Amino acid sequence: MKSITIKAQERESVGKKATKALRDAGMVPCVVYGGAQPVHFAADERAFKNLVYTPNAHTVVIDLENGTKMDAILQDIQFDPVSDKINHIDFFQLKDDKEIVMEVPVKIVGNSKGIMAGGTLRLNLRRLKVKALPKNLPDFVEADITDLEMGNKLYVTKLPTNNFKLMHPDNTVVCQVKISRAAMKAAQEAAKAEKGAKGKKK
């Protein structure tokens, strides 16, 4: 999985006044859990642009001014209800030998027979939860729709998993090919025409 480096400075004071001062200066207060103890830090709000405002999934390298570097994933994010600016971010520190659960995007591949016949694709899940060691976290989960006929569904059990597990029940539908109104109307008209032709033969 691709990684984004966030240059940050460790926070000594985590009180409300200090936190407000950080936000006023265009900084985002953050904390990373998962180590021996939580590490509080702050980084420029612009540093999170490619991490937060993207459909892609990334791990993060938190690069502190004191030389400490921590591999982590974004765990929770809070936005200001009025300005929609980032208020606070929680991270979870990665360990090479410990599996982690995170959401990654679904990537649709292939040309569905059902869509070529006039159906429409409905994506039920745009992201899926996967569990893996940090080195095995995928950038995305590939969903091949080539064999989907009109009315068919693609379940998570049909998705390839390479060194990771999908954390969803087997009956979870990733996407499906729905019968479009135009295709339904054409089928109804064809059925009427066939019925009419049979009636004339009699």
From TrEMBL:
Pfam families reported in the protein's UniProt record: Ribosomal_L25p (PF01386), Ribosomal_TL5_C (PF14693)
Domain Large ribosomal subunit protein bL25 beta: 99-180
Listed GO CC annotations: cytosolic large ribosomal subunit
Any one Gene Ontology BP term: translation
InterPro entries: Rbsml_bL25/Gln-tRNA_synth_N, Ribosomal_bL25/Gln-tRNA_synth, Ribosomal_bL25_b-dom, Ribosomal_bL25_C, Ribosomal_bL25_long, Ribosomal_L25_dom, Ribosomal_uL5_bac-type
Gene3D superfamilies (UniProt xref): Ribosomal protein L25, beta domain, Ribosomal Protein L25, Chain P
Domain of life (superkingdom): Bacteria
SUPFAM superfamilies per record: Ribosomal protein L25-like (SSF50715)
All residue ranges annotated as the Large ribosomal subunit protein bL25 L25 domain in the record: 6-91
UniProt keywords, alphabetically: Ribonucleoprotein, Ribosomal protein, RNA-binding, rRNA-binding
An example molecular function term from Gene Ontology annotations: 5S rRNA binding
Function per UniProt: This is one of the proteins that binds to the 5S RNA in the ribosome where it forms part of the central protuberance.
Binding partners and assembly: Part of the 50S ribosomal subunit; part of the 5S rRNA/L5/L18/L25 subcomplex. Contacts the 5S rRNA. Binds to the 5S rRNA independently of L5 and L18.
HAMAP family registered for this protein in UniProt: Ribosomal_bL25_CTC
Family: Belongs to the bacterial ribosomal protein bL25 family. CTC subfamily.
Protein name as annotated: Large ribosomal subunit protein bL25
UniProt source species: Flavobacterium croceum DSM 17960
